[in-house]
Amino acid sequence: RTIMDSRACVKMVAAAWASGFLNAVMHSAKTFSEPLCQGNTVDQFFCEISQILKLSCSFSYLRVVWALVISACLGFGCFVFIVVSYVEIFTAVLRIPSEQGRHKAFSMCLPHLAVVSLFVSTVIFATLKPPSISSPALDLLLAVLYAVVP
Q1: Where do the TM regions start and end (predicted)?
Q2: What is the rounded distance in angstroms from the CA atom of residue 62 to the CA atom of residue 30?
Q3: How far apart are CA 63 and CA 31, in angstroms?
Q4: Contact status, residue 26 vs residue 69, Cβ threshold 8 Å
Q5: Neighbours of 53 (CB within 10 A)
Q6: How is the chain split into domains, by residue range?
Q7: Strand runs labelled E in 2-150
């Protein structure tokens, strides 16, 4: 309770919800303002922004970069927060005197860390992969890895 009181918890939840909402509103506003010339069928199982932008009449690399920069800024802030949190958690766990207590604490943290790592690595690869290796099957596989598996 001395490290994480209810006020700090409310602030962190509010920041997470606000950044997610801001990201969604900005992407939705930009995406829905684009006219679609190539139909409205997306080769994914959900409407991913990059797939919708490919259907746009005025597909522009700058629009993709704009979406990427906004997401990267918000995502980097979240990533830094997660890393700092894990450093604090691991520091606290290593101070536990008993081996059994440390093992129990690590067994609670490591699965979450694995899921976060899978999510972050697949999102980074999906976003930064060169167009030369892009294919609908690879895009679908990456989307499943970062949207469904975690």
Answers
A1: 64-93, 105-126
A2: 12
A3: 9
A4: no
A5: 19
A6: 61-127
A7: none
